[in-house]
Amino acid sequence: MASTTVNSYFWAGLRAGAPFVIVVAPFGMLFGVLATEAGLNVIETMTFAVTVFAGASQFAALQLMQENAPTIVVLASSLAVNLRMAMYSASLTPYMGKAPLWQRALAAFFMVDQSYAVSYARFETDPDMTIPDRMAYYSGTCALIAPVWAIATLVGALMGARIPDSLALDFALPITFLAMIAPMLRTPAHVAAALVAVVASIPASLLPYNLGLLVAGGAGMVVGARTEQLLENRKERT
Amino acid sequence: MSGAANAPDQITLWIVIVGLAIGSFLLRFVFLGMVGSRPMPPWVLRHLRYTAVAILPALVTPLVIWPAAAGGAADVPRMAAAVATVTAGLLTRNVLAAILAGVVTLYGLLYLLG
After folding, report:
1. Per residue in A16-63, pLDDT tens?
2. CA nearest A165 in B: which residue?
3. Best of B53, B85, B99, B107 to disrupt the A interface by mutation (most A CBs within 10 Å)?
4. Would you put residue A10 in left (φ > 0), alpha (ψ -120 to 50) or beta?
5. CA angle B73-B60-A14, nearest 5°?
6. How far is CA A3 from CA A20, A35, B10, B31, in A?
7. How far apart are CA B99 and CA A183, in angstroms?
8. Residue B57: CA atoms inside 13 Å, Cβ hemisphere, count?
């Protein structure tokens, strides 16, 4: 009967990831459009989107290539945008680290902000899940987002400049991330981490090579961890 | 070929695509693959618990304040859409409701102000 529960976890993950299709689709289309405008053909655009599979860094690379930045700067700066994935990877390790290596490799390849955030929130609140349950849930969260990303990019690349700017596709990314934040604010420590990250990100955005994200995000993580410890100590004393 | 002014040359483009593909995978795999089931110290875990809730706001704040589509200037529809998304998320704790609130606000104001 194990496969039945694994199956139901897959569907639960799929349902949790489904709302993001609304925003992943326009974001993928936007990449297809901008890549075409930058002079990439359909094969180049699709290889880019499907092998890198990390929207924000793809946009960063595209923009820097158009500014004729040195290749090493294009790579370093775009990878800096993806450094957060290493943090996601670390944060999923306590929950998924015991899975078979091939499953962890696949999970790593398909890791995006949405699948990570949704899965992590579930793993944290449901400690009784087994490793196969967690892997099933995680695959469910990726199962819609990954194909939609690819198809939307293709549509954008084929339609190219015929998609009007007034569709404001650029704002799909901020809306997704903002929608994911509110349900995560479960404790005062989470709220403190988010607030510090927001405030710090404003001056930090002046740093070169997209490094501001790591500085501001790191500051939020430290404050979150400190707040948690302070609250625990206070609880122990009373 | 759309004849874009600054189309990257083929070699640069493929170096970037292959380099980014390999680099992005390694960044995602580094802990999940290398650390695996080895236990991590409590202070590391304590910081990792706040990864998502710190990184996502840090990523999104500059995009809301200086949206590239508005030429990097503050933009009323985008700012309002951001506020609506967060407010709906806090009130409903529902991702779909938050996304819809943001999209409706954005398109509504772009239509009214456009």
Report:
1. 999 989 888 988 998 998 898 888 999 999 999 999 999 888 988 887
2. B69
3. B53
4. alpha
5. 135
6. 27, 42, 47, 28
7. 12
8. 30
Type of residue at A163: I
Contact B32 A117 (CB under 8 A): no
Q: Give the pTM.
A: 0.80
Check: CB of residue A171 under 8 Å from CB of residue A30: no
Indicate yes or no: CB of A221 within 8 angstroms of CB of B47. yes
**Interface with A, mutate which of B15, B26, B38, B61 (most A CBs under 10 A):** B61
Give how far A225 is from chain B: nearest CA, Å: 5
ipTM: 0.84
DSSP code, position B69: G
Do A197 and B61 count as a contact with CB atoms less than 8 A apart? yes
> What residue in B sits closest to A217 (Cα-Cα)?
B55
DSSP string, chain A: -HHHHHHHHHHHHHHHHGGGHHHHHHHHHHHHHHHHHTT--HHHHHHHHHHH--HHHHHHHHHHHHTT--HHHHHHHHHHHHHHHHHHHHHHHHHHTTS-HHHHHHHHHT--HHHHHHHHHHHHH-TT--HHHHHHHHHHHHHHHHHHHHHHHHHHHHHGGGS-GGG-GGGHHHHHHHHHHGGG--SHHHHHHHHHHHHHHHHHTTSGGGTHHHHHHHHHHHHHHHHHHHHHHHHHH-
Tell me the two tokens of residue A142.
Answer: 């990726």
Count of beta carbons in the 10 Å neighbourhood of residue A110:
19
Residue-wise pLDDT for A64-75, tens only, equals 787 777 888 889
> Best residue in B2, B12, B18, B24 to probe A by mutation, most A CBs within 10 Å?
B24
